[in-house]
Write a structure and sequence with these properties.
ubl conjugation pathway
């Protein structure tokens, strides 16, 4: 509705402005990191983000994804790096998350091969 559109517009404006982009990305990073508490069996609600925050944040993030949700919808899809979250240099750390279909060792090997193929330093030869 109108509230979700307003939130999206505000966040989108902050991300588009070069002076506010990094602080907005930092805030998003902290918001996502605060949700890591919810993955635990015993949640400390003094530490975890609220349900309301994440319902609103999810609606904003989904709206931000609209340009590349459909692979046939323009240039945005071609600029995505699907391996970004595995490269370990992003804002959100996924190392402790459960991997589906691979062991941590298999994933580490794949990441090293990917970095080597891209010529990224830190990859073993």
């Amino acid at each position: 509705g109108i509230l979700h559109t307003g939130r999206h517009t505000a966040v989108h404006s902050l991300l588009k402005n070069k002076d506010t982009r990094v602080p907005m990305l930092d805030w998003l990073q902290q918001a996502i990191a605060s949700n890591a508490e919810r993955a635990k069996m015993q949640i400390d609600f003094q530490v975890a983000a609220t349900h309301g925050l994440f319902c609103n944040l999810c609606s904003v993030m989904l709206k931000l994804c609209e340009p590349f949700i459909d692979p046939s919808s323009g240039k945005a899809w071609q600029r995505l790096d699907v391996a970004y979250v595995t490269m370990g240099d992003g804002r959100v750390d996924f190392k402790e998350d459960t991997k589906l279909g691979v062991s941590s060792e298999e994933e580490a090997g794949w990441v090293e091969r990917r970095k080597a193929s891209l010529g990224i330093s830190g990859a073993s030869s």
